[in-house]
């Protein structure tokens, strides 16, 4: 359906919900077209294509709300959707913080953002890319097997309407390519690794051969990993691993967690959480940004901001519900799918780069660990305690030496944030991005 048709469908759905007794209602439709392929050892293993989408309707009756969704857009199905939602809303417990935006809170105009590639990509193009990518990986000396290469392309239309008068739609696109391979053998040990590229515009993807070589080289250099003795040392997280540290911050400043008091940063607003030189930025309107969008999922305006400004925490991540719980103004961070209510979430976020290269950042380290992969989910967001399995390379006298595995690194996120030093190798690849970072004084549990 065209975007005007989607908006008309939602407007009719909202009107029907009001007629059925709802005090307020909003609805979202997500329509998409996508193709994904996987090849392994030069042969096509999977080819999937899809078209269509879902509609999600939320109705509110006083302080009660109910959400239902459907992929069926027939008149009969939509009538049933409304009836089910209204019936559910009459019986669910009250939520004193639920509700749609007041008209004065809504975005009155949406910025023009370049987030939709007009090109349509064929399945054959994706197949050819994966074969080139995997072949380049298998050509890397030491690679012994492949877990396959995958590629995808898709375009999505999002339309949102509500009984407060908000009616908007936008379109976005995305493409990706990845490869995962195995290096080594039963004698030397076997290791696996991957490389990945994603972009709004298909033409912005990294070259397939480069992704394949990257996956192969990463896997090969991990073969022959050793254990190390327990100690405290500086740890450098490569750019891919460092993204997780930014992710832990975003979870800790999520308004839902703050409202529940289940985050170690619940009392940290306006305080110095990182070292004074550290800033973490968000920009929902970045052209060709993987997570860009012109407004939030409740129709509120969103904007670029520093989440961490020279070390200081400046904001929580708030949707309307979390803002009401905390008696604060919403920040335009609502996200939503078709099957549930809005919740707080971020868009394009990145840790600003530092001035030193990763090599310069490790130059004075006599003994330390360079982390390329993290294992497990050992992070306690209530206390900030951090303990995760790690894979990487031992640092001696400022140089990478041998691969390391079966080690656990531990600290507390409060201390990690304060000691974090970013390198200069920031590459916007994932939507949440970071350069390599150094954190001194982490505990290593090994042999």
Order of helices and strands: HEEEHHEEEHEHHEEEHEEEHEEEHEEE
Query: End-to-end distance, in Å?
Result: 60 Å
Could you say which overall geometry the principal axes of the C-alpha atoms support? globular
Q: Give the integer mean of the pLDDT values.
A: 95
Note the beta-strand portion: 35-45%
Low-confidence stretches: none
Helical region count? Answer: 9
Number of strands: 19
Proportion in helices: 10-25%
Descriptive overview:
It is globular and about 70 Å long. Strands 3-2-1-4-5-6 form a six-stranded antiparallel sheet. Strands 7-14-15-16-19 form a five-stranded mixed β-barrel. Strands 10-9-8-13-18 form a five-stranded mixed sheet, with helices on one face. Helices cover 23% and strands 37% of the residues. The mean pLDDT is 95. By secondary structure, the protein is of the alpha+beta class. It is built from nine helices and 19 strands. It has two domains: 3-218, PmbA/TldD fold (2-Layer Sandwich); 225-447, no CATH class. Helix 3 (123-138) runs parallel beside helix 4 (208-220). The chain starts with a helix and ends with a strand.
Summarize the structure.
Helices cover 23% and strands 37% of the residues. α3 (123-138) packs parallel to α4 (208-220).
